[in-house]
Amino acid sequence: MQVPQSTLSRALVRLEQDLGVELFARRGRTVALTPAGRTFLASVERALAEIERAAEEVRADADPATGKVAFGFLHTMGAETVPGLIHAFRADHPRVRFSLVQTYGEAMLEKLRAGELDLCLTSPVPDAPDLVARRVDEQKLRLVVPADHRLAGRRRVRLAEAADETFVTLEPGYGMRRITDALCREAGFTPRVAFEGEEAETLRGLVAAGLGVALLPPPAVPRPGVVELTVTAPRAVREIGVAWLAGHVDTQPVAAFKKFLLSRRGRLLHQ
């Protein structure tokens, strides 16, 4: 062990004093474990094995070729956008692994701050001193109406024309809810909200059932029973940004994926 015998002896004595238990039976120049020592040794060996396992895991996660990226994104990006991004990224990094978290914006920012995510795609683009965020794209929003709605025969509409409609929206705290409320205010009205949900496709189902209208990003697959109208005024878009924790030191896989996302500015999304 390349430790002087006297130093080791003092360390053993200190350990016993800290525990208040005799771990070693000393017989002349020999030392043997007591029953308490054998119990302690078994637990310590398990603890050391767990520490080594954890060390191997974090080394594996940081490996340039096979490491892991913890990546969060909005529900509306899960069907096409994120699978396409990861597919394109893995063309040059085929063995990098991903831990994917699909949730709403505020929850992703909390996970960034807690160290549970390395990066996230979110909207609106956050502005906070402890985060770094870069705008990478924008997504047009549509006014979604039932197929038999009075506006369904139109292709374009001013949002003010829906001022008297009942709206279905995402719950407060969701980025799309804040954007919806802001656009309606800009159009000169406060939306009358009848239903609040957690997922855009559920809202489309409510619209198809004739329960209201909604402002939503384009669907991955067209939904029967609804018509999606271009909003001409105000300009109805949501900005999409990449965010990460300020001062966080990236592993090589995270740095590579961050660079990849930023390189796709303006062409990140399926419109």
Automatic annotation (TrEMBL):
Ranges where the HTH lysR-type domain occurs: 1-34
InterPro entries: LysR_HTH_N (IPR000847), LysR_subst-bd (IPR005119), WH-like_DNA-bd_sf (IPR036388), WH_DNA-bd_sf (IPR036390)
Pfam families xrefs: HTH_1 (PF00126), LysR_substrate (PF03466)
Keywords, sorted A to Z: DNA-binding, Transcription, Transcription regulation
Xref: PROSITE patterns: HTH_LYSR
Gene3D superfamilies: Periplasmic binding protein-like II (3.40.190.10), Winged helix-like DNA-binding domain superfamily/Winged helix DNA-binding domain (1.10.10.10)
Protein family: Belongs to the LysR transcriptional regulatory family.
PANTHER family reported for this sequence: HTH-TYPE TRANSCRIPTIONAL REGULATOR CYNR (PTHR30346:SF28), TRANSCRIPTIONAL DUAL REGULATOR HCAR-RELATED (PTHR30346)
Designated name of the protein: LysR family transcriptional regulator
Protein species of origin: Streptomyces glomeratus
